[in-house]
């Protein structure tokens, strides 16, 4: 079974631009979560989507948004990029929404975003 | 103060030694406990998943949970150079997965 895939793997943007990242979950998984990973803050939860609905949200500004499509694929958008948005953005998929009995999350390789 | 505290390391051990990792947490709502391994330039990979106090073994890995002390541990026996990675503890509570900062482990041949 194919794992979680993320595109693109690397991205360089300048301040003020916007960016869209894509995540394809494991086949059959309906939950997709997004995380930001930086050396200083570690892995921080952004949001979780299940059946095209946002179920949970972390403490990030409204510049960070996401959506999920009917095939469970998800996109994350960051508008008006800031230098501090440089990070590894990870996507994870699971069978059910976080907190459920079978909610093991499987991570993709991430998208490394550099903001200049 | 972070909800989950984890020593960042690095932790350097000789090949064959036991690696001992731990995390403390403050949120009593955490119910499920996990350990992930992350190699450089890769996403985290789930190693162990537990939901009750006590020990759980899987090959060379043993996960230990003490809910009364809000303390979890991971032990790696007979460590190998291929175990060199960052190990992250993670916990689920309130429908969110919260990670520790990760401990970098280096196993020297």
Outline the structure in words.
The complex is a heterodimer of chains A (116) and B (109). Helix content of chain A is 0%, strand content 52%. Chain A starts with a strand and ends with a strand. Chain A is globular and about 35 Å long. Chain A is an all-beta fold and 116 residues long. By secondary structure, chain B is mostly beta strands. Chain B is built from no helices and eleven strands. Chain B has strands at 4-6, 11-14, 19-25, 32-38, 45-50, 54-58, 61-66, 71-76, 85-93, 96-99, 103-108. In chain B, strands 2, 4, 5, 9, 10 and 11 form a six-stranded mixed beta sheet that branches. A five-stranded antiparallel beta sheet of chain B has the order 1-3-8-7-6, with no helix packed on it. In chain B, a hairpin with a 2-residue loop joins strand 9 (85-93) and strand 10. Chain B is globular and about 40 Å long. Chain A binds chain B through residues 4, 33, 35, 42-45, 48, 55-56, 58, 90, 92, 97-99, 103-110, and chain B through 32, 34, 36, 41-46, 49, 88, 92, 94-102.
Task: Kindly list the characteristics that best describe this protein.
heterodimer, A: 116 residues, mainly beta, seven-stranded mixed beta sheet, four-stranded antiparallel beta sheet, B: 109 residues, six-stranded mixed beta sheet, globular
